[in-house]
Write a structure and sequence with these properties.
binds cobalt (II) ion, 3 helices, metal-binding, 134 residues, Methylmalonyl-CoA epimerase, 8-stranded mixed sheet, VOC_core, EC 5.1.99.1, alpha+beta, binds ligand LP2KCY5N, isomerase
């Protein structure tokens, strides 16, 4: 079921400052900020060739990452995103295996415009998992 690792996401309190560190200190190419109100975050991506790093900060009230940043005020690893070739088949398998799919269980378009779903961190060893259909 799992394909490539699409991205590793890091939640940050200040996206511009984090992007500047990735550009200046790490010499990375960082994409322009992408506000995603439907996800309650603004993101940038660093394309590493074999995978990506996603830096994200809260956007608006009720961001799903606000609680995480309260607990981790300087930021931290937030989620992993695995690629799948059929997100509905993946969802059905995950539900059949007893995993919790977050939200209403319906895929939403992610940062790349592809359908994504999230799985509860407590079901995957303290790691929030995102799956993205590619
Ligand atoms: C840009 C679009 C898209 C893409 O295309 O890449 C994105 O990546 S959008 C990213 C932002 N969206 C989401 O993260 C959606 C899914 N997340 C959620 O629904 C919530 O974040 C959550 C997972 C339900 C957690 O919400 P929270 O308010 O923190 O709830 P709790 O405090 O009840 O947390 C429960 C429990 O889980 C621990 N936790 C929370 N977040 C994480 C995390 N990222 N990694 C690991 N563990 C996490 C939290 O500490 C609680 O643990 P206990 O305190 O031990 O109960
Ligand atoms: Co993501």
């Amino acid at each position: 079921m799992l394909g490539r690792l699409n991205h590793v996401a890091i939640a940050v309190p200040d996206l511009a400052a984090a992007a500047a560190v990735y550009e200046g200190t790490l010499g990375a190419q960082v994409s322009a900020p992408q506000p995603l109100p439907e996800h309650g975050v603004t993101v940038v991506f660093i394309d590493l060739g074999n995978t990506k790093v996603e830096l994200l900060e809260p956007l608006g009230e009720g961001s799903p990452i606000a609680g995480f940043l309260e607990k981790n005020p300087s930021g931290g690893m937030h989620h992993l995103c695995y690629e799948v070739d059929d997100i509905l088949a993946a969802r059905d398998r995950l539900l059949a295996e007893g995993a919790r799919v977050l939200g209403d269980g319906e895929p939403k378009a992610g940062a790349h415009g592809k359908p994504v779903l999230f799985l509860h961190p407590k079901d995957f060893f303290g790691t929030l998992v995102e799956i993205e259909e590619v």
